[in-house]
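residues and backbone:
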Amino acid sequence: MSKYYNPPKTRGIFNPESKEPFTLSRTGVELFTSCPRCFYFDKKFGVARPPGFPFSLNSAVDALLKKEFDIHRAKGSRHPLVETYGIDAVPFAHEKLEEWRDSLRRGICYFHEPTNIILRGGIDDIWKNSKTGELHIVDYKATAKSTEVTLDAEWQISYKRQMEVYQWLFRHNDFKVSDIAYFVYVNGRADKEAFDGKLEFDVKIIPYKGNADWVAESLFDIQKCLLSDKLPKASEDCDYCAYRRAVDQVEK
């Protein structure tokens, strides 16, 4: 038995007979958006996609950035990088910050009564605009590429949707949230002459103007999917479904 993947899972399964709210993570919404069929297998039968291996370096960068910004949070001061980009904001101090950061067990939640779904998501950081008092959702990203870091790649639409779900959640928790979110993008440099026991990074802040109008509609679509007895169509660009189709052809 694999220690990495042991389907079917028994937790987080939708029960159409239950009147209890169904808890759905932000990643669950993204799964539905990318492929309703994979979502259906996961939430109705407990057959999830095989997990990817953890990116330990990305996790280390994430943890260090949080510690760094937390120093300025305690002081109520702007981070030098934020000053460099002319952003008039400081890290937002709140007693629930660590709860909101706990993406696996807690996060920030909202009960969407029309669909009986509790949507939750774990954020990296929040900055408070010093002039307007609005909150800016902040996400840390790490990569290593020779070209300039942008948000222009087609696959990065998932990053943008991620931000919009967070904006939606905080607004429904009665916070004043700006449409402008920020990605703190860390890019590992491969142009150095030698490794010398250290990896250097360029750090860039990329603003993104979100529009979370789609989130509520998506919850209704998810509810309809979960209540259906019909297997949804696979997304044309889903690699997992393509693999299953190929296996089915071989086994016939």
